[in-house]
Structure formats: C-alpha cells, structure tokens
Design brief:
Bound molecules: guanosine-5'-triphosphate, magnesium ion
Shape: globular
Largest sheet: 7 strands, parallel
Mean pLDDT: 83
Low-confidence stretches: 1-24, 121-129
Number of domains: 2
Distance between the termini: 52 Å
Structural class: alpha/beta
Strand content: 5-15%
CATH superfamily of the largest domain: P-loop containing nucleotide triphosphate hydrolases
Length: 357
C-alpha cells in the first residue's frame, strides 16, 4: 500500500489489501477523522486500513480504533449480516464467490463484504491465501470487498476485530456483510453472536453423518442450504433435506417464530440461488417486522460485554504476579487431581477477595 494521501473516490482498483501480513506499523499516517470520512464515502482503501487498525493489538492503536468506531458508527440495521458456516470443504468459499456474484448481478445497488473468522489462525495462520485465490471473481468486483481473517492474539481478540470490521463495513455502505468461518474449531458460536442470520451449509450424504452435525449448529441455524446438490447428488440431497428437517423438529423452537427453511443448492453449478435469496429475504423481512433483528443485536451487544468482562478479568488476574502464582498452583492441583475444580475455584476467589480489601 502506498504512502499517498487518502483517495476518497470510489474506483474499481480500490480493492482490499492483498497482503495479509500488512502490519499496522507500515500504515500511512492518516488521522482518524480522515479514515472515518474515507469510510463514509465507501473508500475501500480507507476501510482496509481501518480494519488493520482495529485488528492491531498495540495499545495506542486500540485506543485509536475505538475512537474510529465511535466516529463511524451508525444506528439502525443498515446491512444484512450473514454468517456462513459448515464443515471444511462443504463449499463455503465457492458459495460466497458465486452467490456473492449472483447478488451483485441481481441488484445494482448491492455491495458485498466478506469477512473470514478463523479461530485456528491464532496458531496456524489459517487458510488466508486459499480463500483469496478461491474468490477471484468476487475479489475483483468493484462492489465487493474481501478481507482475510484477523490472525494473532486470542480468539476473543479475533472476534472483537471481526465485530469491529463488520461495523466498519456497515458504515462504508455495504448492504451485505458475510462472515465465513475458516478452519475447524468453536467459531460457530462466535459467528452466531456477530450476525443477523446464520446460514448453515450442509452436504448431501448417506444419513449416517447426520450424527456428526452438532446439535448446537442446528439450534443456531436460521437458514440451511444443502450444497453440492447438483446432478447425481440430487437424490441424496433430498434425503438429507428430510433428515435435517426431522433433526430441526428435535431441536425445538427457534428463538422467535421462524422455522429455518432448507434449500438445495449447488455453489459450483450456481443452482438454487434464487430460492435461497428468497429465503434470506423472507427471513430478514420477518425478523424485522417482529422486532427480532433489533432485539438480536441488543442481546449480542450484551453477550460481547459479558465476554469482554470475563476475558478482561482473567487478564487482570494473570497480570498480578501474586494472583498468578496462586492461580498456577491451584491449576496444578486440579491437574494432579489433588483438588476438585470447584474447591480450587473457591480457594482462588477467597484469595482474590482478601486482596481486594
Ligand atoms: N460438486 C460440487 N463441488 C463443490 C460445490 N461447491 C464447492 N465444491 C467443491 O468443494 C471443494 C471445497 O470447496 P470450498 O469452497 O473450498 O470449501 P470451504 O467450505 O470454503 O472449505 P474450507 O475453507 O477449507 O473450510 C472444492 O473443490 C470445490 O470446488 C458444489 O456445489 N458442487
Ligand atoms: Mg473456505
């Protein structure tokens, strides 16, 4: 990225930063106000820089990032936030590439952002390049923005960065923000707490693998699509649809009056997109009319507050050498089986209370 001044004109070449290793330190020196106004006019370079800023774990950057979020934050539900999950290889990236293009082609006003969240990236670096190369057409589209997952730091940190990236995309005028889970891990819950609609991609199967689908995912799903349903896979896909609808009945009621629709699609052959787009549209219209979208976002804010407090308290605890040594000692006793986790917790809390008075 050049050191030139901020270009606030929209242009087809204003793509996302292609260098995932781009570091905050090399960011051109733009003021927070300049970044905010760039985002306000949909400048993707400004957006990209802003996301790099909110991903940074440097204390000074965190403060600046918070100020930026405060400046750009808009009220109301302006973008459709859609989470896309499913086992590795189910076709999430192929789906986003082709369904993203489908939306852009059917609606000239649509602007699509794709964010990826990868809890395993804190260790491995994730499949950042894989996704970049898989979404070639979409990544070159002037109304699309693809951002690889934040890496480094804790899952909590990655989630916070993704949440803020989402707000930034929304402020930049994106109509659809997709959050894709990359890699394996416990990212589904995180994604479910970031989005309005949780789209679960499944695959046609023999039926046995249904047991492998976590019950939690079925509970979180707002929309289900069975990918790879083209051609010879169609009969198996239909059976999977029946199995999944039975499984849905078992998980009980959705949080609000909504039964997740199940659509057969092929991300590769671009089939079933119209029906899926209709399902998504119905979901959003229904959720809005019931006041559910607003309610859901409020609950999510509370969830992230709770998460922040929990993580923060934990960090505070470990930052104090005396408490850390008590904590480590108790942890060892639990590992050895000398203390039950409950007794150890109580002991730790008693120690903390003593330290507070
Ligand atoms: N037959 C068929 N293959 C598909 C379809 N969608 C995706 N694939 C193929 O499935 C493989 C995995 O697709 P990806 O889009 O990379 O899957 P993913 O879920 O993003 O995978 P991870 O990022 O590794 O979690 C690729 O070889 C795709 O070409 C489909 O609709 N039909
Ligand atoms: Mg992928």
């Amino acid at each position: 990225m050049s050191k030139s001044t901020l270009n606030t004109q929209k242009s087809a070449t204003d793509g996302p930063s292609l260098n995932p290793k781009f570091k905050a330190g090399r960011r051109p020196q733009l003021t927070i106000e300049e970044l905010a106004s760039g985002i306000g006019v949909g400048d993707m370079k400004a957006l990209s820089m802003a996301i790099t800023l909110v991903e940074s774990t440097v204390a000074d950057d965190i403060a600046k990032g918070q100020e930026l979020i405060r400046l750009v934050r808009k009220d109301g539900t302006v973008a459709q936030r859609i989470g896309v999950t499913g086992v590795p290889g189910v076709g999430k990236s192929t789906f986003l590439e082709n369904f993203g293009m489908y939306i852009l082609e059917s609606d000239p006003e649509a602007k699509i952002a794709v964010l990826a969240i990868d809890p395993s990236s804190t260790k491995t670096g994730g499949s950042i390049l894989g996704d970049k190369t898989r979404m070639v057409t979409l990544s070159h589209h002037p109304r699309a923005f693809i951002r690889p997952s934040a890496s480094g730091g804790s899952l909590g940190g990655v989630a916070r960065a993704t949440k803020e990236a989402l707000l930034l995309c929304e402020s930049a005028g994106f109509t659809h923000v997709f959050v894709e889970t990359v890699g394996v891990g416990q990212s589904e819950t995180t994604v479910a707490q970031l989005v309005d609609a949780f789209l679960f991609l499944a695959m046609p199967g023999t039926g046995d693998e249904l047991q492998g689908i976590k019950k939690g995912i079925m509970e979180m799903a707002d929309i289900i699509a069975i990918n790879k349903s083209e051609g010879g896979n169609a009969p198996a896909a239909k059976r999977t649809k029946q199995d999944l609808s039975r499984a849905l009945q078992l998980v009980g009621d959705h949080d609000f009056d909504w039964t997740p629709p199940i659509t057969l699609i092929s991300a590769l052959a671009q089939e079933g997109f119209e029906e899926l787009a209709l399902s998504l549209d119905q979901y959003f219209r229904h959720a809005k009319s019931q006041g559910w979208l607003e309610e859901k976002r409020k609950r999510q804010e509370l969830y992230w507050f709770e998460q922040g407090v929990q993580n923060g308290l934990h960090e505070l605890l470990l930052a104090n050498p005396k408490w850390k040594s008590t904590y480590d000692g108790l942890k060892e006793s639990v590992t050895k089986g000398d203390l039950s986790p409950f007794v150890a917790t109580r002991t730790l809390l008693e120690e903390l209370k003593k330290g507070m008075v």
